[in-house]
Amino acid sequence: MTTIHEPVLLQEILDGLNPQTNQNYVDCTFGGGGHSLAILEKVKPSGQVIGIDWDPTVVQNSQNENLILVNDNYRNLKKIINGLGISKINGILLDLGLSSDQLGSGARGFSFQSEGFLDLRYDPKSDRPTAADILRTYSEKELLEIFKNYGEEPLAWQITKKIITQREQGEFIETADMLVQLVSDEYRKKYRSRSKHNPATRVFQALRIAVNDEFGNIKNVLPDAVNLLAAGGRLAVISFHSGEDRIVKHFFKKEAIKEEPKIKIITKKPIIASENEIKMNPRSRSAKLRIIEKI
Questions:
Q1: Beta strands at 229-239 and 89-95: parallel, antiparallel or unpaired
Q2: What pLDDT, on the 0 to 100 scale, is given for residue 116?
Q3: How far apart are CA 118 and CA 105, in angstroms?
Q4: Dihedral over Cα of 255, 260, 264, 268: its sign
């Protein structure tokens, strides 16, 4: 298998999870496979890595000895592992960032430079609403909450009003480039200087989170991940969004201070990328890694 995805905080993950020969690990967000393949090298010859990804194209294009690939939402982790009949899990990884392949996918609207339909579902066969559905049917209040809460978008109100106005005129946002144009127009009204980043970044992020219920997925999987771990096993979570990190931080803290805690926190503060990694892979700039150990 080849991968173009640059795994974030790879050495820190290997140090934190400390995979050993013949152990079993789960990568809940397989993506480009970079983390999984590195862990796989450590657990050979008899250890296994279970790679989970909601995107069916990821699973179809990836094959490797001792690697079990499952096309499913990681919020179903408990059912997946029970179905495989694997009794001992020594470590679990959740990398909540998009892979490079997904970021460049124009077919489902992930790429800004795309005329592709604004889908943004990881699994295009999912029965969840697409981003275009949300923009076409959600109320002004609902759209505003998505852009503010999930995207922390400073022009959430202006962008929402523009979407609603166009909608009332029979103009619907159906493709990625149409959304980029609408957001860019609102930014040009407010700011004279051009941003280093695409002004639509936060809006796309917000819609992607809403479409895939990403915060809900995290809240659902964390308790199951802890319960599935063997004693001494570790759970590592890489987040890229303040909302994601907040969910993980609060869950770890709550579990660690229980009267009979199941976990202990390994990272008192989140691990962040080195200056060298940020230079090599700018996407790692916002990554935060938190690790706990099952008692």
A1: parallel
A2: 87
A3: 11
A4: positive
